[in-house]
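Researcher: Next entry in the queue.
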Amino acid sequence: MRKFLPALTTAIGVSVFGPVAVAGDDAEVHVLGFSKNGSYFAFEQYGVQDGSGFPYSEIFVLDVIGDSWVAPSPFRRRDDINDHDVYDEDAFLSETRAENRASAQPLLQSKAIAGKGKTVGINPRTELSSDPHKMIVSLWNTDHRKETPLELTMEEYPIPSAKCEGYGTQTKGFRLTMTFNDVARTLNEDKSVPGSRLCPHAYRIERIVTHYPEQAPPVFAVLIQMDSFGFEGPDRRYLAITGRL
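Model: Structure for this entry, 245 residues:
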């Protein structure tokens, strides 16, 4: 790991809850997709921390039915850039992502992650006319009038955290419901806030990806974008919720 400008890090610091940033740290997401049989799903989130300038990459591999991480994922890498390097953000980020992908490759290969899946709905934060807590999608590119749509709805609610309140953050959890073929089911309902979320205070439905294996039931992955505590702006990261349709 390389070290970045000691004077800068001493002056402004880097919190374990996120980078010191004027506008927060907004991760990008790269969907690596499902395995051919639909048993596993993987994605990467990556970016450059505002304030520190440290490039990072995090790769998650999930057991679709168990909706849980597959060890040893997640693979997390953050490189501290040396103060005598010529700073090239794109080059450093590419290097960090490549090295993290190399670390994850044995697991990606063993779980046969094959880029399978189709994004059937996406709701980026820049789409101002969309509802961040609702998404209705067609699963097939056919006559939508004859097709049963899939609907996702989200509800946020407060879950107090004394630790996070010390940072002036009112933490929240969320309930996510899927309705399909006239059957509604709860995909997520927080009773507490996992420590890995780092003081979350807002959520939105970002996308849904589906896959239809040849000899298994269809599967899905819903990506949730989460705003968590940052000293001078929200740090935005992704969660994945997986299962069978």
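Model: Residues 62 and 68 are 5 Å apart (CA to CA).
Researcher: Noted, moving on.
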